[in-house]
Amino acid sequence: MKSQSLKTATEQSEEGLLVGRDPRTMTVEELNANGHFDRPLLDVIRAKCLDCCGQNQAEVRRCTAIKCDLWPYRMNKNPLRKRELSDEQKQAMADRMRGLRKNQEG
Asked: Max CA-CA distance within the chain?
């Protein structure tokens, strides 16, 4: 299976070297066959941070590689998109949640 995946994910360059295909030209089925499935981007970033830190969550938290492009997102949140809600928005969200809970119970 692995060699089959390698065949669908790689191609020969003009220089005769084996290179990774451009994923933008691959079908969803080809990507899935190579173990790539649609996931939230922050989850993908978190997984890479865990990989970099030997699967140790505490090490991800303690990471000091602040020049790494993924560093701000390592806690599975985007700190650059802080959302400030008005009191009216908070109330509307609470009302929607109450409605959803009622529908689930009922």
From this structure: 65
